[in-house]
Amino acid sequence: MQARENRAGVQAAVYRKLICPNRSLSTTAMLWLFLAYTVFALSLGIGFAVVGAWMVLPFTCLEIAVVAAVFYFLFRHAGDYELVIVDDSRLKVVRRWGDSEVCDEFQRYWVKVFLAPGAGGWYPSRLRVGSHGRMVEVGAAMSEEARQALARDLKNAVRR
Fold first, then answer.
1. Entry pTM
2. Do 85 and 154 have their domain in common?
3. What is the mean pLDDT of residues 84-113?
4. Which of 76, 95, 113 finishes a domain?
5. Would you call 157 exposed, middle or buried from its count of C-beta atoms within 10 A (0-12, 13-18, 19+)?
C-alpha cells in the first residue's frame, strides 16, 4: 500500500494488518454447543440418580461448571485482535485482550523488526517490533509461515 492523502489532507496508512486468532465457532454456535452438552450431561446424571447412583449427579454438575468456565473464557476473548498500522511517521500496535485495549506507538525511523527463532527448534519464533529498548510482541497467534511473511512485510513497510 502506498501513502495517500485523503480529503482532509491527512496521510493514510502505508501498511495495515489486522491479526485475529483462529475462531472455528461463532459465539452463537458456542452457546448452542454448550446448551447441547449441558442437556446431555444432565440427562445422564439424572438417569444415574434415578437408577440409584445418586453421587454421579453432583459430579455431573461440577463437570458442567468447569465446562461453563471454559466457555466463559472463550466468550470473553472472542473479540481479541492485534492491529499493526504503519503510516508516514510512526508504527502503531493496538492489542485487545478481553476487556482491555493497549496501544503502543513507535517512531517509524527508529523501529526495528526482530524475528527471534524458537528455542531448540521446538518453540515458535517470536516477532518483536519496537525502538529504544521497548519491544512489543506481535503475531503470537499466527502460524510460523504467516509470522515470517508478516516480518518481511513490516520490514519493507518501515523502510519505505
1. 0.73
2. yes
3. 92
4. 76
5. buried
